[in-house]
Amino acid sequence: MTSASDTALDALHAAATEIFTGAIKACNIAFAFDRRLRFDGNTLHRLLPDGSGPATIDLSSYKRIFVIALGKAAGPMLDTLLDRMKRRQGLRGVCCYNQVPGRRSWRFRYFEGGHPLPNEDTFAAARAALALLKKAKRDTLIFFLISGGGSAMFDLPIDPQITLEETRQFHQALLASGAPINEINTLRKHFSAVKGGRLAMAAPDAAKVSLLLPDVPLRSLDALSSGPSSPDHSTVAEVRELIARYNLAPKFPPSVRAFFERADMPESPGNKSWLPPFFPKLPKTDSVLVRRVTAAAFMSDEDVAFRDSVFEILLSSHDLVESARALAEKAGFHAVVDNSCDDWDYADAARYLLGRFHSLRAIHPRLCLISVGEVTVTMDRTPGAGGRNQQFAMACALELEKHQGERLTVLSAGSDGIDGNTQSAGAIADPTTVARAHTFGFHLKESLAAFNACPMFTALGDSVVTGPTGQNLRDIRLLIAEKD
């Protein structure tokens, strides 16, 4: 027989899930695209120009238009662009997505890149894009449609002797290091022939428009998919410092270690200390700031590839968190946003957010604390089935066990619908999670140490499963409370 307490927790689980899925649905790519851009015949209008770039782009002045779409939102972004852009003459492209697109155009080559680790299509997509971009001239306009996940899905080592399996080991070592995403992607930029601005460098004379859906902090936009179309400001010296700080060299395959130890290891394009920042600091309220790289006067010949580049942020984690706030308030919760723990270790983030949560719910009995961003996990062994969101939820479950009988729920999930090496987006925890797990033979501390959260949450029915969302705006955590 179901108790009133169980029913109340089920209702909180449902409320958290509805806020999460509703926030993702509200961040509609097609709507965001139409908010920023409009095609009128052969003219592309930028609807909210900030004075840093042209308000219109005349497509008829270009003989060819190339499109490179990569990341977990590549499919929906490409579909939206093709729906709006009626011109097809000279149109060709490459799409690297993490699933087989429902719609395909014969003008494009499609690849199903691997994530969280590269696969054969990861390399094939990068080679296809480089081959296409070599054909770009001054009469070519290139659209780069870039979303999160591209670092693993779209890659090719600078050193052609490094194999796919060695590249997978390199990526796995980075994921297990506990480093924040911008530091992980600093190493990826210097390893890759298509990251850190090198994809743009493959077509130095062409004009470029990058449409971005960041899954990285807005202060680190050149870390998005490791910055294939943007100038990079990280250096070889920083790379070597990071390898030493996280003791990564022993964890790399010999060929990768030898590459990073080369005395002549190449710098990535645009990493000049005297260049202005790629993006100025973003105001807190500006989720769609548009910036253009206009530092031609400061650029070397190598950096001319970025001179005629326009960058548009279609959506960001700001949109996700504001959508969640609106939905929580509509559901009758007092909503509070706290993004302080972005890039923190998952255990530290759990302690901080739960402490804030308990303080706030003493004042606001019906509360939804919202936190967006990503936590880090440092792994000392081969992981089980799980991801950072399920690891965070499991850590919260151990603390919530102290609050038996109280109506408290924590949801942590990725907006892309995928957490780590699982098919779950994340998980939900409450004060009964530990006890219920024991009845199924799971011990949370053991599962936590083994990075093996998914089997437990799946058995409890507390996994958050959405399937790939075609979106990727970072992770979101919802801590919800209500009084009896």
Outline of the structure:
The protein has helices at 4-26, 29-36, 74-84, 120-133, 150-153, 164-175, 181-191, 198-201, 236-245, 254-260, 317-330, 346-361, 388-400, 433-439, 444-449, 454-460, and strands at residues 37-40, 43-46, 56-58, 64-70, 91-97, 108-112, 140-147, 207-213, 290-293, 309-313, 334-337, 367-372, 407-414, 426-429, 463-464, 475-482. It has 484 residues and is α/β, with parallel strands linked by helices.
Could you explain how this protein is built, in words?
- The chain has two domains: 4-25 and 319-482, MOFRL domain (glycerate kinase, domain 1, 3-Layer(aba) Sandwich), CATH 3.40.1480.10; 28-314, Rossmann fold, CATH 3.40.50.10180.
- It is 35% helix and 18% strand.
- It has 16 helices and 16 strands.
- The protein has helices at 4-26, 29-36, 74-84, 120-133, 150-153, 164-175, 181-191, 198-201, 236-245, 254-260, 317-330, 346-361, 388-400, 433-439, 444-449, 454-460; strands spanning 37-40, 43-46, 56-58, 64-70, 91-97, 108-112, 140-147, 207-213, 290-293, 309-313, 334-337, 367-372, 407-414, 426-429, 463-464, 475-482.
- The protein has a seven-stranded mixed sheet, sandwiched between helices. The chain has a six-stranded mixed sheet with strand order 11-12-16-13-14-15, sandwiched between helices. Strands 1-2-3 form a three-stranded antiparallel sheet.
- Helix 1 (4-26) packs across helix 11, helix 7 (181-191) crosses helix 9 (236-245) and helix 12 (346-361) crosses helix 13 (388-400).
- The longest helix has 23 residues, at 4-26.
